[in-house]
Design brief:
By secondary structure, this protein is α+β, with helices and mostly antiparallel strands. It has helices at 27-39, 127-152, 154-162, 166-185, 194-202, 223-230; strands spanning 7-13, 16-22, 45-51, 55-58, 80-81, 96-99, 112-113, 117-120, 215-221, 245-251. The protein is elongated, with a radius of gyration of 22 Å.
Length: 253
């Protein structure tokens, strides 16, 4: 797979041209994006959600010719794609192309939208901020372990609550905390790779999205256009007040 040639596409927008390459390690996202581009799917769609120092999002078919004020972001192809996380090799550094998706509560498998995508702009973090994020992620791992254990004892918890058995509840909580800590202690703590540390403290990105959304490509030319798009004035729904149109997406090779 390493020797397979990477596909590049030219995205012509009303703000200028952006060239992206697609990763071969995410074949379903790669092939789907190529197919949509060749069908002219993206022609006339908008960058409908723009958040400075975060990302620019496009690909909603309902954004074509959408009147001012129309809420966008729910249009799709009628299908989703399975998550293709190639982590930590590919992560949310500035300039990567990633697939949008619905939230975990309705999409626990983190399947991607069949058409909507975003390009990361993000921000630069200090080494201490990145270390703080590592600590938060490790705390979250502990909380997830505790919540999973608590769900296994829900009948017992409800029974104690009904009986107003506060002592029993406290003892069970202490027991579950100890079990969660023992479980997490047996795992290696989360740490960003040297490549992530370097990227997030120099060019920037959105580290909190790592391993949550499929990263399937990156900008190779025209990052200044992405920068210009993130600077546009937007309304309260993060839609640009003046439409930023994707005129055409062409497969170059």
């Amino acid at each position: 797979m390493e020797n397979q040639k990477e596909t590049h596409l030219l995205m012509e927008t009303s703000k200028g041209n952006i060239t992206v390459k697609l990763y071969n390690e995410t074949p379903q996202h790669r092939d789907n994006f190529i197919k949509l581009a060749q069908e002219g799917f993206y022609e006339g769609t908008l960058f409908h959600r723009v958040i400075k120092n975060f990302m620019i999002q496009g690909g909603d078919p309902e954004s074509k010719g959408a009147p001012a004020g129309k809420m966008l972001g729910t249009g799709d192809t009628g299908y989703t794609l399975p998550a293709e996380f190639v982590y930590p090799q590919y992560f949310h550094k500035k300039g990567v192309l990633s697939a949008a998706r619905q939230g975990d509560e309705v999409n626990p498998e983190r399947r991607s939208s069949g058409c909507q995508f975003y390009i990361v702009t993000g921000q630069v973090y200090t080494p201490s901020q990145v270390a703080g994020m590592e600590n938060q992620l490790n705390q979250m791992k502990l909380k997830t372990a505790f919540d999973t254990l608590a769900r296994q004892h829900m009948k017992e918890i409800y029974k104690m609550r009904k009986a107003n058995d506060m002592t029993g509840l406290q003892q069970l909580q202490d027991q579950l905390i100890a079990e969660a800590q023992a479980q997490v202690a047996g795992e290696a703590p989360f740490k960003f790779t040297p490549e992530q540390m370097e990227a997030y403290t120099t060019v920037g990105g959105t580290p909190h999205l790592d391993n949550q959304y499929t990263v399937f490509g990156e900008v190779t030319e025209g990052m200044e256009v992405v920068e210009a798009i993130q600077e546009v004035k937007t309304n309260r729904a993060d839609r640009p007040e003046e439409d930023v149109v994707i005129r055409k997406v062409t497969v170059l090779e």
